[in-house]
Design goal:
Layout (H helix, E strand, L loop, with lengths): L2 H9 L10 E3 L2 E9 L2 E6 L4 H12 L3 E9 L7 E9 L4 E9 L5 E3 L8 H12 L2 E3 L43
Length: 176
């Protein structure tokens, strides 16, 4: 294993009993492992910001690659929100996962740590309806204003017709 992954794996290497969580340096880590050379940590949503800040500041995970979600419609915590981080220094990745309910699909925003998170969080909100607490700009980025629903949710009706939106000419500030 890459030395930084060894270090992180040991940091979170408290043996986990199935279903238990442990107190890691910044809160609860529900599970940890390595998949395809990537350290995977399943964490409580409440400690996301602190764990990402630690990974960035102490372990050189300086690039947020992706924010996405997985819809598990039959699970009590329906949505699994997933972040991928890269250390450009150590050339390794970390995947963080947390679960949120369908009734309140909200997690903390990482825009204070990574400016690029704003766009990725908007995309995740468009597609799954996940809300990001602290992201001040949750306008649609892939869908248009007036689009109803979230098309990557498994219960989204594929045959649904969306309302037509009248053509709006480009704003002069965006036209060259």
């Amino acid at each position: 294993m890459v030395p930084i992954l060894d270090q992180l794996h040991l940091q979170y290497a408290i043996q986990l009993a199935e279903g238990d969580s442990v107190e890691a340096p910044h809160g609860a880590v529900r599970s940890r492992g390595v998949q395809h050379g990537t350290l995977v940590l399943e964490i409580d949503a409440a400690v996301l910001f602190n764990i990402v800040a630690t990974l960035r500041d102490q372990h050189a995970f300086d690039m947020l690659l992706d924010v996405t979600a997985v819809d598990w419609p039959d699970a009590p915590l329906r949505f699994e929100v997933v972040w991928h981080l890269l250390s450009t220094t150590h050339k390794v990745r970390v995947r963080l996962k947390t679960r949120v309910s369908a009734q309140d699909p909200t997690v903390d925003s990482l825009t204070a740590l990574f400016g690029s998170a704003g766009y990725m969080e908007r995309e995740c909100h468009d597609m799954y309806g996940i809300r990001f607490r602290g992201n001040a700009d949750m306008r649609p980025i892939l869908l248009y204003e007036g689009f109803h629903g979230h098309p990557l949710r498994k219960d989204y009706p594929k045959q649904k017709e969306q309302p037509l939106v009248p053509y709006r000419p480009p704003q002069s500030a965006l036209v060259r």
